[in-house]
Amino acid sequence: SQHTSMMERRRMDAALLVVLLVHLTTALEVPLDLPQPPTITHQSPKDYFIDPRENIIIHCEAKGKPHPSFSWTRNGTHFDIDQDPSVSMSPHSGTLDISREKAEHYEGVYQCTARNKHGTAVSNNIVVRQSRSPLWSKENIKPIVVQEGVSLVLPCRPPAGLPPPIIFWMDNFQRLPQSSRVSQSLNGDLYFSNVLREDSRSDYVCYARFPHTQTIQQKQPITVKVLNLDAINDTMAALYNDTDLFSADERKPTFLTPSGPSSSKMVLRGQVLEMECIAEGLPTPEISWTKMSGDFPAKRTSFLHYQKTLRIVNVSESDAGDYRCTARNRFGSVHHTIHVSVKAAPYWISGTPRNLVLAPRENGVLTCRASGIPKPSISWSMNGIPIATELSRKVEDDTIIFTDVQSGSSAVYQCNVSNDYGYLLSNAFVNVLSEPPRVLTPANQVYQVIKNHQALIDCASFGSPIPKITWFKDTRSSTLDGDPYILHNNGTLEIPVAQAQNSGKYTCVARNDLGIYENHVYLEVKGECFYSETIVKQCRYVTNKSVLIKFFCTDCFVYRLVVDSDSLTITDVTENDAGVYTCIRNTTLDHDSASAKLTVVEKPDPPTDLELTDQKRRSVQLTWTPGDEHNSPIQKFLIQYEDLLHNRGHWHNLTEVPGTKTTAHLKLSPYVHYIFRVLALNAVAFSSPSAPSRMYKTEPADENPTDVKGFGTEHNNLVISWKPLSGLQSNGPGLHYRVMWRQKAVDSDWTTVNVANNSEFVVSGSPTFVPYELKVQAVNKYGAGPEPAIALGYSGEDLPLAAPENVQALVLNSTVAEVRWDPVPHKLIRGHLKGYKVYYWRERSLHKHNPHHMEKQILSFSGNHSHGMLPGLHPFSLYSFNVRVYNGKGEGPASPTQQFEMPEGVPGRPTSLSVTNPNLDSLTLEWSPPHDRNGRITGYTLRYQPVNNSNELGPVEELALPANETSVTLFNLKYSTRYKFYLNAKTVRGAGPTISQEAVTVMDEAVASRQVDIATQGWFIGLMCAIALLILILLIICFIQRNKGGKYPVKEKEDAHTDPEFQPMKDDDCTFGEYSDNEDHKPLKGSRTPSNGTVKRDDSDDSLVDYGEGGDGQFNEDGSFIGQYSGKTTSRDVAEGHESSEAPSPINAMNSLNSFV
């Protein structure tokens, strides 16, 4: 009994799992004409900022049956709307309208409740706050006097608005231009990495724009005065006969913000991460960013404000880590590390909890899957009240499991997920209904699609239990559940590539335990309407020059033009030919049109007024004025330069900038005499070049080669390579390189050689794979470059000396094994460790019938691994393997070869299944064992079931067959019946996949012959004649009786007969008597009359229906029997009323004769 109860429990768990899966994957929308708890359809956001100049509108809309009523709480207590004349609620809605006159009095936390008799739904907590845009406090700002070249910060410090304002700086009513030297920080302050004379202004103004109220406030203007060091030096020279007493100190960068070597920042998942580094220095530092623990997310990362701001949108947990910003100029560099931690307010993992519709005694589940950092807590409420586990409802953390639900247990459940950074609140109802299926898609709808396009045919349905959807086409010969049809969970039938033969009538059938509902729709697949470009216009044809505009549009009509080919030609194009051209396409399926605007364009005019500003040793800013665009926007500007010192007469491309810009910051090379020119590009062509700018000379500078590397091509050499300097970088004749090296971690002197006209040097006789420190210095006839930086390299690699030790295999299951080993010591690898390789091969199957296998396979595990998985192995097989380490040179020796055996697995499907010797009630099945036995076959399982003409499957029969059999004969089958057979093999690990086959038993020809020949037998013809004679006699008697107008005493006739089955007939039905009992109206003795008026018989009674082959017998409204004799099961309509236009049946005739006698 204990075993039986455990089996029952397992079956219940399995059934519950199936139901839960169904309800998890199916979300039904309950039609509003059916009872249902409330659902909130619209509500105001959690943080709701209101404009004090407008009424406060707090939204709360909900649906349900019956329509829900609404109430509100404010700051946790009931909000009595009727007692406040400033507050009104919209009819049939919960939306509040609060007068703006006292808006500040209505700030607070609001929550809406919608309820009906089936449940209660609640809204989020809506925090209502009034937006504010305060003024700057009055302050007396003194002028700022600074020396040229120093750094400067102009504070903004805007007033605290709600929500925070947007900050920007202006100068003389124009946006202040920003650059790598001057920029605005995230808090609104204005930073100068170093000030110039032109920074002197009296009207630096910080503005704060409050977007919610659309107001702008401004700070008092700030005056900045930059001391002119040249003028001071001239004055001092005249007074003290000295020069250059004061100068702007060139210096390495330091950070203005953030301060210190490191800082930290926390950001929430899904928000925007913005980090900034602003440095001062002279010359102006350049900022760069790196992520120390990985790469930037390319599609979510941007660098703003001349690389000073790093911005990452839609932050995820992977964005946590250390970020380093570097400020660099030619005097040095400085770093700052920002540690970013990512937290997360609660967020849904698989969407919000979904409504459940359950039939009585069904099972279901509500899930509230959410996550966050830190992990959020989850609480449940029912109709707004906290709940606990009950008999039919079990609460398990983020899940409520319902079992055996009852009618009347509908309710709304609230899931609240919260942590330190926010909360989620969701309503989901459980609606217990018993409802037959219905199809919500309109009947006889016609879907029209274009050939070779996707076709989607809808079958939206509802029912409880959830209906099962099946589709049929035209004659309904079979269900549409395979190629080319795709059936979606919502009932939609998809045809990925519709063809003409897919046109026709489609029937959608929704079925559950309470009924069946059918819906018919139609699909029409038509040809495709195609065109590529469209043109139509009011225009005129002229000769001479022409422009050809091509379009492709079969059977198109072109307004006001006659088109004889696939092109429209407009000759002698002028600006007057600009206009709109339209192509129209009509088919029986659809019509379409499109227009194209013809604009006459030319290449732009060249830019003018080239000017050089912000001149530095290695950079300069170039500005210009664009020329006329000629109806085509400028896409970009190309800046070119000519070197008048080294390459006079040749122009070279320097850089490009977008067409919206008129300035470019140019990075320059040393010792070049530059002149610049600018070309503009639009959709037509480049403009002519602008006039050249004035010449700008850069000074010579010392540089060293970059990209210094050290590596080996042989096991005993070291190759030192570098990127050589260009001709411009050499700064003089006689360029060569001083190459230096020494072993790292060895107290040795530098070895030096001079190399000319080459970019690498080979050091021979070096030890195998040892680290070296390297330096390469540039030298010309004027001297050596600066002290070079030290680079690290390694001499050549050699093959590893040792194999991994302690190698062993661990079998995890029938197809996966894990190989483990001890890593090879680094000194024995003799090179850069690339990883480990596992060589493995299948020696043979452990089954005697399978051949030997020797195909080797290799799996590589990159990096310093000590184990690896071998997937996809054959069950019940013997494998051999060994492990090797490899470096950049190649593989080391193999470990000793070992073996392991894979356990048995489930077998493959049988190789074949065929049907032979089909007879009237038997047939024979023959099969071949699986090709992949994967173990010892312990037997076969054969299942089969009949299939009727509607493709409905009958009951399944199952046979267990021994392993040594490959055929079986089945007896006692139904003749002329189609059967479907399923066969699979078994091992100790379980059953394998099935192979299926169908066959039809033979029809009994003798039975068919008798069914056809009975109509030609003499006795049958005689019987039919006798019946016809009786009908004729009955008609004559009825005619005589009607002429006489008399009645026969039915009561006496009844007493004279002892047949309890005798029933008289009324005279208005051509009967001979009338039965009437004044005391009570009882049925005749021996009969039973149900309340619906039909007559049923006892099991011992004879029925006249039995004389026909399935014919129905009925009594009409006055009790007379109406039937029909037939050789087949046939039903006919009986004429309504007391008189029938059809001939009486032989059974009525027989009853009439008994009454007459």
TrEMBL record:
Membrane topology according to the record: Single-pass type I membrane protein
MF GO annotations: cell-cell adhesion mediator activity
Subcellular location: Cell membrane
UniProt keyword annotations, A-Z: Cell adhesion, Cell membrane, Developmental protein, Differentiation, Disulfide bond, Glycoprotein, Immunoglobulin domain, Membrane, Neurogenesis, Phosphoprotein, Repeat, Signal, Transmembrane, Transmembrane helix
Residues passing through the membrane, by range: 1019-1040
Biased amino acid composition, Polar residues: 1148-1157
Location of the region described as Disordered in the Swiss-Prot/TrEMBL record: 1050-1157
Fibronectin type-III domain segment(s): 606-701, 704-798, 803-905, 909-1005
Biased composition (Basic and acidic residues): 1050-1069, 1130-1141
Ig-like domain ranges (all copies): 38-123, 134-223, 253-341, 346-431, 437-524
This protein's record includes keyword Repeat: yes
InterPro entries: FN3_dom (IPR003961), FN3_sf (IPR036116), Ig-like_dom (IPR007110), Ig-like_dom_sf (IPR036179), Ig-like_fold (IPR013783), Ig_I-set (IPR013098), Ig_sub (IPR003599), Ig_sub2 (IPR003598)
Similarity annotation: Belongs to the immunoglobulin superfamily. L1/neurofascin/NgCAM family.
Entry protein name: Neuronal cell adhesion molecule
